[in-house]
Amino acid sequence: MKRIATLLITVAVGILFIPCAGAQDTVKTLLSFDGTESEGNLIFDSVGNLYGTTGDQYDPSLITVFKLSPNSDGTWTENVLWTSTGNPEPMNIRAGVIFDASGNLYGTSLYGGASNCGTVFKLTHNADGSWSEKNLHDFDCTDGYQATGGVIFDSAGNLYGTTSFGGTSNWGVVYELSPNADGSWTETTLHNFTFGNDGGYPGHGSLAFDSAGNLYGTAGQGAQGTCFVWTTGCGTVFEMSPKANGTWSFKTIHSFTGGDDGGVPQYDLKFDSAGNLYSTTYVGGKYGYGVVFELIHHSNDSWSERVVHHFRGGGDGAGPFGGVIFDAAGNLYGTTSVGGDNECFNAVSPGGCGTVYKLTPKTTGGFTHTVLVRFHGKPNNTPYSDLVIDNVGNLYGAATGYGTYSSGTVYEVIP
Question: pTM for the whole thing?
């Protein structure tokens, strides 16, 4: 696999002068991938290294977990921790990885495993610095198929995630993996999506826990409305609560209509300090180009939706695929997968290579939307993942390089 491993380019065309302000945001490409994509979230370790994944369905040599380490001169050095050798090892990784308390990494794949229906895998950090891969669970297509989203831990060390397909109705599942004393893991299906009021096709996002141990997630389709011509249903946000007998209850807390409230949520939910949830939808809203939304939790345990921003297309951005993150001041940051300009790789409506945006809370309520970066093509275009932020306010993300520019990147946005 060819990669530019210590590249640090200031992309002049990726700089946007913010209207009515004297500052600008600089985009630096930290790593370029040759012929593969990176869609998953990046994570930091305790010393400031970044970790991420690349995924390709057909070429195992392009399926990797990598580490990026900052150098004193401002460059970054890549270290590929693991490369797939093909089925039954993980194939086509679309989510990122997470750490356990011992520094081992966990992730998921769409394919690979004994039935080639996807895996949950672990990378163990060995004493000599190498990493060893082990499949913790091979999906068999009935208990799940295509683990597009990532996994999260609970306090007891169990893993939770979703698959996009499989289950009794083939519209995906919520699953739990529990470790056993002999080193094996046991999978339990917590919910089978039906494509009815519960939705279906949970996408790239991971689940999220609240302080009471309830699980929250998104289903990208199903329920009500019509968001795509080939299917019905604009998706849901759901809550799952553990019961005393070990099972879980399921409740849909919002069904998208595809109208002003948005449609087709694809990524993670994030909690604010008051227990409200934030994320994005890929389409819908006043202009049809997606929204940033908030779900407000009320004292009677009901939820109501408020749209924080309606994307307008064009320079404003469109089609947010990733979710949002908070900084310490309560500002929100995210990306749109298209929009920003009309000079990109193809004629995808509304054109453009994507944006990085900021939503600043106003003292009078609501948020002010600012486009920080408009991508103009190679090397950076089509960001799908959530952003991550370092301790000085720099943002980091992965762009897929989808379309003509079929090489993804890891980029940094410096305010």
Answer: 0.90
